[in-house]
Structure formats: structure tokens, C-alpha cells
Amino acid sequence: MKLKIAFLQLLPRKDAKEQFEKGKAACEKAKQLGADIALFPEMWSDGYYLPQNEAEISSLAVGTNSGFIAGFCDLAKKLELAVGITFLEAHDPKPLNSFILFDRNGKEVLHYSKVHICAFDLEKVLSPGDDFYVSELDTGSGTVKVGAMICFDREFPESARILMLKGAELILSPNACPLEINRLATLRARAYENMLAIATCNYPQGHPDCNGHSALFNGVPWLPNEPGVRDMCVFEAPGDEGVYTAELDLDLLREHRERDVMGNKFRQPGKYGILTESI
Hints:
The protein is of the alpha/beta class. About 25% of the residues lie in helices and about 25% in strands.
């Protein structure tokens, strides 16, 4: 089973209406390119704009029953394309940095809010999410178990580890920061140690503090009948704006998960108690 992922590496426009129209056109292009999933960068509804004024940020937040979200739900169904839309979610007492995945029938299969918000910076005006979730996505060719983490979540090994333990095969990771060698290395490590694939979508160069380089790591560092190691990064976009696609070989990943030793196979959770303590 092979899965084609579209990375919507787009520059934002000025408001949610224009964001929807540009996002709609990008999803249509993704479908034309044969994608099964279209993934947006972080907080697409307002282009990752985070005013520090409570009234202003509340005015930008959209609800899950808003026209913005309903529009992408309808679009997913119309295009028969899974759409991972990101948004500033209306929430009390503070908004959330959220992601919803609609399947090709327009059904919501995953709703996640960023757990590790950047509370040391502009995201201090947000509330953190509560947990990590995994759901089955019907692609038409078969199902894949999908989870999500957003940007700074990747810096915490626990994020991907929990998703792996819950059964994730693919993590969708919207982003809004420079994807330079070290941040890409953390994604590579999360894919390697958990034997899963990670797709990250960033804003292109031209957006403040972003540089493109959306990427797909397939989680397969070696094969039994090939010498040496393989580059798990099977796709990395340039810095330019665009809709890019990459293919994930799920059969290859599943075979690797069956035979190799990473992931959950030799963990010793009884010795990890300190990880759940507040130090």
C-alpha cells in the first residue's frame, strides 16, 4: 500500500476567508497531483499570527462548527481527499493551536490540540492541549493509523512515543519555524526510534521565521537484503512556496516494524517512573 501526501507549503493571506480560498485551491491542486492526504502548515486559519492582546486573538479564533472548518470538511468530501487543516481554535479560557483531519468522505477522524505550546514566546496566549490521539484513516486503498504532533511537540520524545504506543504508523506534523538541520534531525530521530513515518509541513521562506523544507521521513533506516543504511528522508521540499507531493510505502514500513527491534519491543517501562514525575 502506497500513500501520497501533499505538503501545502503556502504563504498566508490576510484573513480567514482568503486563507480558505487559497487553501481550497491548494487542495484542488493536491488532488490533481494524485494525493491521498493534504497537509497544511501550523495554524493556517490566521497564518500563525498571534497577537498578544486577548480581545484581538479571541476575534481571530474559529470554532470547530465555523464556516472555515465546515468548508474544509465539505471540500474533503467533494475532492475525495483527506485534509489535515490547522487553525486557531476558539476555547475558554485561551484559544488552542489545533489540527483536524477529515477523511475522504468528509468525516472528522482526528482532532488534536498542541500539547507543548511555546509558552516562553508568543504562544503564551494559548491553552495547551490535553493528550495525543491516534485514529484509523481510510484512504480508499486501505487504512493507516494516524496521529498528530505540532511543531514544538517534536522536541519532546514523549510526543511521538505516546503516539507509537497508541498504534500510530504515520504522524502528521504541521510546523511554523525554521526547519534547519537540528529540527529535521529531531524528526528523523522520532521516526527512527519509533519505527513510524513523519510528514511535516512548514510555511515557505518569506513567512517570518520560516524557511520551507517540508519533509517526509519513512521510518525505514535499513533493509535486510541491502548493505548499509538508507536515508529515511525520502522527500524534502525547497524553501519556495508550492504544493509538493511525496509517496510513503506503507508495506515497506510495516515489514520493517515486524522484523526490527525499535519501538515498543524492548522497552522497560517499569524503570521509567521519573519520566512522569514533576522535578
